[in-house]
Amino acid sequence: MGAKGGIFLYADSTDKLLILFGTLGSIGDGMSTPLTMIILSGVINVYGSSEFADTSFANHEVDKFGLRLLCVAIGTAISASIEGICWTRTAERQTSRMRTEYLKSVLNQEVAYFDNQVGSSTNFQVISGFFSDAQSIHDVMAEKSRFSLQHPIKENILFGKEGAPMELVVSTAKAANAHKFITKLPDGYDTQVGQSGVKLSGGQKQRIAIARALLKDPRILLLDEATSSLDAKSERKVQEALDEASLGRTTIIIAHRLATIRKANTIVVLQLGRVIESGSHDKLIQINNGEGGAYFRMLKLQQSSMLTEEASLSYPPLEARSHCRQSSSQSPQNPVSARSSGQSSPSYPFSPALSFSGPQSFDMHPNDQSVDKYLAKSSHLPHSQWHLVQMIAPEWKRSLLGCLGAIGAGSIQPFNAYCLGSLVSVYLLKDNSKIKSDTDFFCFIFLSLAVFSFITNLLQHYDFSVTGECLTKRVREKVLCKCAHL
């Protein structure tokens, strides 16, 4: 993959050629300004010469210098295009290799690498961000893709891979356990399912969504609450479809029903963001000399909760709303959140990123008043820019120096343009001694501008950088204090 260090660490021979041409384009682009100044100085020399009175000669010189400026403009455009295309292309190629290497290193990490002591949804976002070729069942569920269900079933499945042959559509439908009920419909795969899929049940919609995801044949399958909001019969059919879809690929499951992850190769139990148990279902229920651990207790709790689910549904709505305060949207009868993963291929007995988590605490409330107080306390207006200005008050001296440097650096360009315009009139003078003295004066002015530009830019960037570092450090400390006291 190229050299073992430096900027060529992830560059191959093609990237090196792109870097070479990009560098040449950068040099050509950078030469545009000095070349333009040389041409303009020639124009000034011609206008200041005694032959300027000859109109025909002056027009000829104007055409000559105009052609030179046009050539410089064309060369600059070509150089800038080569510079941008080559550097952008090699950056994309090398970035892709960096991400591949990073993904390989991530896949070799322990499960705790993914656990940043937050909820399962954030961990799911982290994992899904690593795997760009993964297809989330949760994101293509029927309830979240209502517009697509206005089309026939075949077109719904083809949303996963447009232009796929009908044989592939049928095979993926069979893999998703959806082919049987589709063929029983009046028009089969051409059946119109109506607005928002009103003619299909929730389980049928989810199986179509599974078929849509499998049509892409993803290597990594992310299942986020794929069997939520289903009855027992529909859940069993969807679970069979998911088991079939998981064959031959890595599957990461995020679910609140522990029954859906019993077949996972590895289940990880989290407590306060830390891994406390890890293993298969059978191993976790046999630990501690057969008495089980946290996973076994949560499994028993969920089984007992399922027995009282029907009675819980008959509670008044007010009491049902005030049962707990937590970030999860699950009901108290099903409070367990789980993340697991399995690899059905025998060559991959364990998946590198598997986790399971449950809620950390529940607060019982007799009514909604405490919830309202909590929401009112947590809601606030976003901080304004003035608040950030107040946070950099300890560095007000550096901020003032940085502002003065920025003002000075900004005033250089207009003053430099004024001096350049005034310099042209010097070449039109008749007195050679006057021309020499004025030229020396403007040379001194330009030299002073260069020194002043160096000082002001140094002052501006240094002071603003130090102020920004102090502000960033202060903000991070405040965020850390807030997180530590949660």
UniProtKB/TrEMBL annotation:
Residue span(s) of domain ABC transporter: 80-297
A cellular-component GO term for this protein: membrane
Highest taxon listed in the record's lineage: Eukaryota
Bias (Low complexity) ranges: 326-349
Pfam families xref list: ABC_membrane (PF00664)
Listed InterPro entries: ABC1_TM_dom, ABC1_TM_sf, ABC_transporter-like_ATP-bd, ABC_transporter-like_CS, P-loop_NTPase
Keywords noted in UniProt: Glycoprotein, Membrane, Repeat, Transmembrane, Transmembrane helix, Transport
Chain segments carrying region Disordered: 318-349
Gene Ontology MF annotations: ABC-type transporter activity; ATP binding; ATP hydrolysis activity
Regions that span the bilayer: 404-429, 441-459
Keyword Glycoprotein in annotation: yes
ABC transmembrane type-1 domain segment(s): 20-117, 400-486
The keyword Repeat is annotated on this UniProt entry: yes
PROSITE patterns (alphabetical): ABC_TM1F, ABC_TRANSPORTER_1, ABC_TRANSPORTER_2
Family of this protein: Belongs to the ABC transporter superfamily. ABCB family. Multidrug resistance exporter (TC 3.A.1.201) subfamily.
Protein name: ABC transmembrane type-1 domain-containing protein
